[in-house]
User: Which sequence fits this backbone?
């Protein structure tokens, strides 16, 4: 044997960063579907419901066309 095997440095998993990235990706996916005029399926009260694009936009505080609401 020539030398010892080195073990890669252990870096703890940053769950907060992963959860933030997943939430952002999920939001963008839902908004992209809504912008294309597609419904988005969602689990609510034990059932699958389909949300219209306007309903998806409203969940993120946008107007029915996906634009920020003007005050």
Assistant:
């Amino acid at each position: 044997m020539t030398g010892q095997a080195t073990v890669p440095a252990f870096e703890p998993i940053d769950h907060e960063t992963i959860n933030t990235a997943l939430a952002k990706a999920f939001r963008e996916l839902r908004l992209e579907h809504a912008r294309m005029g597609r419904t988005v399926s969602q689990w609510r009260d034990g059932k699958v419901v389909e949300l219209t694009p306007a309903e998806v936009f409203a969940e993120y505080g946008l107007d029915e066309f996906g634009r920020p609401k003007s005050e």
Remarks:
- The helical segments are 15-35, 53-59.
